[in-house]
Amino acid sequence: MSWKQHLEKVSEGHYVLPRTKTMRVHADLFLSDKLLWGEEGNPEAPPLEDAVFDQVVNAATFPGVTRVAVTPDCHVGYGVPIGTIVETDGVLLPTAAGYDIGCGMVQLQTSLTVEDVADPAKRRQWIDEVTDRIAVGVGATRARKQRKLSEPTLKEVLRHGAKALGRSRSVTERDFIPVEDTGVSIPERAYDKRGQLGSLGGGNHFTEMQVDEMGRVWVMLHTGSRGFGWNIAKHFFVAGAAQLGLKSRSEDFVWLDADSALGRSYWNLHNMAANFAVANRLLIGEAVCGALEDVFGGTANIYYEISHNLIQREGGKFVARKGATRAFPAGHPALKGTTWEATGHPILIPGSMETGSAILFAEPGAEKSIYSVNHGSGRRLSRSAARRQLQQEETDRRMAEAGILLNTRTTPLDESGPCYKNLDDVLETVEQAGLARVAHRLKPVACIKGAD
């Protein structure tokens, strides 16, 4: 019998997987019938992979786990599904933060309208100006026209994130995450990557000009802690596996006692990586705002910044979001004194560079998903499958017909629209389950990607 037969439907968009096998707690899965079972005869709406089950069980099996939730964009990841929230008491889960610690989004708001950016030549000029100001691609470091930070400022960034750049909680999820041990030693391989601060990276990271339903122009960008965070994560995956006596390549099962020496070291370095990621996004955002103003005129500013691969302290426990976005509604105590106290904070959801993205606001019902929603639409095709199955000429034609400009010579097949689930289906599930409401849908008109 399929594991899906064990699920209990609570309401539209909400299933529960009761405790089974080694699970310490049940898991709440926020999935529509379509996302769970698929749509017969529609290859673009496949059923959820069976392999997700084992990873949900793993997420609910770790010592110290108190709650588990799964978002509608979920798919197979490492250790736990992408799109998982795990609440723990006294235990840190490196696998539930992942390699790109602090990866997340920034949304830029502009005074421009769709008419202002209608000329493709001007949008091409903007792409060129942005890539002069931010480094793009795997291993990329600071760009030629970018603000340079001194070594003392960099060290301040690692400890105080956005606050070190003069930014407040009104434009960031957190202005910084505290680093409690001032004497913690940064792994050399991580510190060697500090020059990547202010760079975009490759893979699914991007900077994208978008237009909303009212014709207003926005820019969304997606990046994380780059090689700095990756090397910190790798260090603790290896050290944690060794401490637990796990076999080689068993890092997905690593957990750390938060009060142990290794746990305290991970927490402090995880927080440094998170601060690096926030500052990285804000520096890129500043550069992109400048490029917009220089090319198109008008004004641009940072609307909001938020992470989706992060462990945070909430309500006295650790909440790890792996490919999931925090969703605090109006009146949540964490928003007291910020711009968003009366509305809830914005939730930034990238879909794909072909089909668009969204901005959401949480509803009170987000409590049942550990105040979290999806971080995107979710992958449908692996990168290798995309390169095997999709046709370059056809993909480029669709992008051209949609009027979406790219910085790359051809469309990256492994990031094109068919690689991702239908964002409409995912957002509909979020609204059905009462977790959040969609405030804006955003259509891409120019996208900057790292060419891997």
Automatic annotation (TrEMBL):
SUPFAM superfamilies listed in its UniProt record: Hypothetical protein PH1602
Catalytic activity: a 3'-end 3'-phospho-ribonucleotide-RNA + a 5'-end dephospho-ribonucleoside-RNA + GTP = a ribonucleotidyl-ribonucleotide-RNA + GMP + diphosphate
Lineage top rank: taxon: Bacteria
Entry cofactors: Mn(2+)
Binding positions (Mn(2+) 1): D100, H205
EC number from the UniProt entry: 6.5.1.-
Positions of GMP binding: 204-208, 308-309, 350-353, 357, 375-378, 449
Gene Ontology molecular function terms on file: GTP binding; metal ion binding; RNA ligase (ATP) activity; RNA ligase (GTP) activity
Pfam families the UniProt entry points to: RtcB
Annotated cofactor note: Binds 2 manganese ions per subunit.
UniProt GO BP: RNA processing; RNA repair
Keywords linked to the UniProt accession: GTP-binding, Ligase, Manganese, Metal-binding, Nucleotide-binding, RNA repair
Active-site residues per Swiss-Prot or TrEMBL entry: H375
Binding-site residues for Mn(2+) 2, renumbered to this chain: H222, H308
The family this protein is said to belong to: Belongs to the RtcB family.
Subunit annotation: Monomer.
Protein name: tRNA-splicing ligase RtcB
